[in-house]
Amino acid sequence: MTILNTIRTRRTIKAFKPDPIPEYELNTWLEAASYAPNHRMNEPWDLLFIGPETRAALNHKTDFGGAPLLIGVLSKPAATPMARDENIMAVSCYIQNFMLAAHEAGAGVFWSSLGASALGHKALGVPEEQDVVAILAVGYPEEVPAVKPRTPITDSITHLP
Predict the structure, then answer these.
(1) Residue 110: DSSP 8-state
(2) Do residues 145 and 11 lie in contact, with contact meaning Cβ atoms separated by under 8 Å?
(3) How far apart are the first and last CA of the chain?
């Protein structure tokens, strides 16, 4: 699969098969994701593997589509607001890399922002001052949604003098 094809065919998966992800594959995707751009090579991501008790405490409306694996993705705290923003941007790139690697291997991901809520912070045991960028539901898709139309990119371009 070419990178352009991988990007264009990746979908948000909302229903998963119960089949587990082999640890070797998962670790391969997690490591590949770490090649995301990050300021000063600070690698600001921390990962939480979410177990059944924490998953129940999160009380997600669809139980994350029945995904066999949940991963909380945190951004490390920073000394300044700009450094915080840089960390969150790098963590978002990390997540996108992970999603593309998983998709290329036939798996799928649902990115939930539930972790950013007060409930999410409490359930995950994350202090309020630390950012939870995502809870990723990971597994093999039960179904893959059809592509949704995109706005032509030319509608988003502004040329500055």
Answers:
(1) E
(2) yes
(3) 39
